[in-house]
Structures are given as C-alpha cells and as structure tokens.
Amino acid sequence: MFQFIYSLLIRLALPFILIRLWWQGRKAPALRQDWQHRLGRVPSIPGPVIWVHAVSVGETIAAGPMVRRLLARNLGATILMTAMTDTGLAQARKMFGNRVTYAYAPYDTPGAIRRFLRRVNPRILVIMETEIWPNMISQCRRKNVPVFLINARLSERSARGYERVRGLAAPIMKSITWVAAQAEPDAERFRRIGVAASHVEVTGSVKFDVDIPEDVRLASESFRTTLGPRPVWIAGSTHCGEDEQLLQAHRLVLAGHPDALLIIVPRHPERFDAVAAMAQELGFQVARRSQGQSASGAQVYLADTMGELMMLYGASDLAFVGGSLIERGGHNPLEPAAWGIPLFSGPHVFNFETIYERLLADQGVQLVQRADDLARAVDLLFANAAERKAYGARALEVVNKNRGALDRVVDGIIERL
C-alpha cells in the first residue's frame, strides 16, 4: 500500500517536476538536453551492462576510482553512468570520455524505471552512497538485478526519518543485495531500518582511495606557476550564505597579507554570476576563470568552470571545504587532504561524519565557527610555513592510512557479479 501511494504521488508530481526542469534549463541549458532520459527513454545498450548511479558531482568523483578499477579488470561489460544533475554527468564525461556510456537517471515512477531497465538490461546496479529510490530498487528486484549500495553512509537523523516511514522503507531495504558501509555506525543504522544483517558489510570509505591523475597534477602545477609566490587559499563547493562569510574572512586576511588570493568555487553554476557581483560590490578586485582573466592583479579569483576543483585545490596553500558554515552537512574534505595541504571546515559536517572524526582525531582539519575564526586560522598558517607544512602532512597521512576500501568494494562487486 505504501509503495502504491508513493508511486501515485510521484506520478501526480511528475508534470510539475518536468516544468521545474524546463524552468531551470533557462540558466542551465544542459538540463533540457536528453530530458527524455528522465522518463526512461534511453538508447538501448547491447551486451552486459554495469549500471553505476551517482546523484551529482561529489558522488561522481567518489565513483571515479571504482569505475577506473572496473574498466581495468576488462569485465567485457559496458559501464553506464547515470546522474540526476547536468553537473554530475558533465563531471563523468570529463573523467571518462568515451570509455563509458552516460544517461540521466529516470525519475522514480514505475513506468520510467521499467522502460529504462528494458532498454538497458543491467547485470547489476551500483548506487553510490545513499541514493535510495523505492521504485528503482523494487523494479530491479523484480528483474533480478542485484542492487549494491557502495560507500554507504546513513546519519542518525536520516535513520530516524526512515524509521518514521517503516512501512515504505522496510520492503525496499530488504531488496538491497549488498551494503558496503563506510563505518560500523552506518552499518548498524542500515540494519536498523531493515537491511538484512547478512547483506551489510563495513568496507570503509572509498573516498580515502582518492587518486590524482597525472594530467590533473600537471595542470595544477602549471596554474600555480601563473599565480607566483603569493599566498593562496581556496574555498571549494560553497553555498548561498557562505560566500558572504568567506569574503568577510578574506578581507581580514588581506589586512595581514595584502597580496593574498582567495579562489572561490561555488557549488552550483547558476550562482556564478551572483557571487562575482557580490565580490565586486564589496570592493574586491575579481577575476573570472571562465573569461580567461588573469589572477595576477586579483584579490578574488572566481573559478566559474566545471570539473576543475581538484586541480585548483592542488594550486592552493590552504583549503576551506564548503557546505559547512551553513547546515548543508559539508562536502568531501579528502580532495584537498590528498594534496597534503591544511584544510578547514565549518561546524556542520554531518554528511561526512566518519571522515571528519578521523581527520579530527589526527589533527588533520580545523573546524571554525565564524568568518573571523577562519581568518585568524588562515592568517596564522600563512605566517608560519613550517606549521602549514606539518598540518598538510597530517591531513595526507589520514588519507594514506585509511586507504584500501576501494579494493574491498571492487572485489565485492566482482564476486557478487
């Protein structure tokens, strides 16, 4: 009954969802391309298919090393990567070119999922993290398509939410073939909401197995050369409500380091123009990457391009990870940590609870509450090269000593395949 009500509500909402998609497409035209994929109308794919679903950019980046390992195993299967967002698919294309196939994920109506499965006929579905769609999972079960939840995490708040709709959640959870959880608290929560205990395994976070491709390293070195010896800090994946605070912090940093540069990377492309206007209105000299403007005379460098955050982290001396000064839950801190640079976050990091626990335990991250706290911390590390190097080394050591989850996940997928 709960599944029926859920499906009915999704069907009723679908016209409004499509209208919203069209409206958003005014500023992001890529959203209107291949819109029929959202209804399950994707090109047929011959032969065996491994379907990898990652909701957006962060999950796509996390899936990258796993997909590379699967490609290297020469499994004789097409890898189909899907995402819900245009930025997620753009990131995937940047990472893999023509080595994999791409599509938007279908909306979670029974008809759209059935059409999608009929045309793709996947051998398995690999879902990154916690993208749980009831019809997607139940229709896969009916087609005998194993569903793997990889790098799975579940906060206590989310677990309580699923418990409140146990009638809907429990049958879906029982249909999941394998949960590769990041940590034991995540595993316990998945068992609590209905996943069979024998189907849950703690593998660790594959995000610790972050790799930096050689072309990214070379691009980062080249870009850093253009910046010269000035102190550079970056704010990655920022959200509305944070940019003002970060610009305020940069104003304080400039008081002690007049040649400092802030690279700011908004999470969503539709905010690029607004952030540029805000920085200019506050009196900063702004350069925009998308327009090829040089950062040499700038105080704020707006990275208004897609898929370059990892490269830009490597060109910076310090990093702030966004989504954390507001109650968004934070973004992946391991990308800057893998470069061996000090990193900061705000207090709201519940999306990466386990990762932050390990970073904090080894003093590999500093959590700040407000803009002035961040400015003081940045100022101190800019003034002390030895401490800056030591902080970055501690962050990198946390990454290195927690590697290995990726091998366990890839072996688990192939074993169950």
Q: What's the main sheet like?
A: 7 strands, parallel
How do the strands line up in the largest sheet?
3-2-1-4-5-6-7
Number of helical runs? 17
Helix/strand-derived category reads: alpha/beta
Distance between the termini: 32 Å
Low-confidence stretches: none
Shape: globular
Tell me the number of strands.
14
Gyration radius (Cα, Å) is 22 Å
- DSSP strand (E) fraction? 5-15%
Helicity, as a percent range: 40-55%
What would you say this structure looks like, in words?
Helices cover 47% and strands 15% of the residues. The protein contains 17 helices and 14 strands. The chain has a seven-stranded parallel β-sheet with strand order 3-2-1-4-5-6-7, with helices on both faces. Helix 10 links the parallel strand 8 and strand 9. Helix 5 (134-142) crosses helix 7 (166-173). The radius of gyration is 22 Å and the shape is globular. The protein starts with a helix and ends with a helix.
Topology at a glance:
Elements: H1 2-24, E1 49-53, H2 57-72, E2 78-83, H3 86-96, E3 101-104, H4 110-120, E4 124-128, H5 134-142, E5 147-152, H6 156-164, H7 166-173, E6 178-181, H8 184-192, E7 200-202, H9 214-227, E8 232-238, H10 243-256, E9 261-266, H11 272-281, E10 286-288, E11 300-302, H12 309-314, E12 318-321, H13 334-337, E13 343-345, H14 353-361, E14 366-367, H15 371-383, H16 385-401, H17 405-416
Parallel strand pairs: 1-2, 1-4, 2-3, 4-5, 5-6, 6-7, 8-9, 8-12, 9-11, 10-11, 12-13, 13-14
Helix pairs in contact: 2-3, 2-17, 4-5, 5-7, 10-15
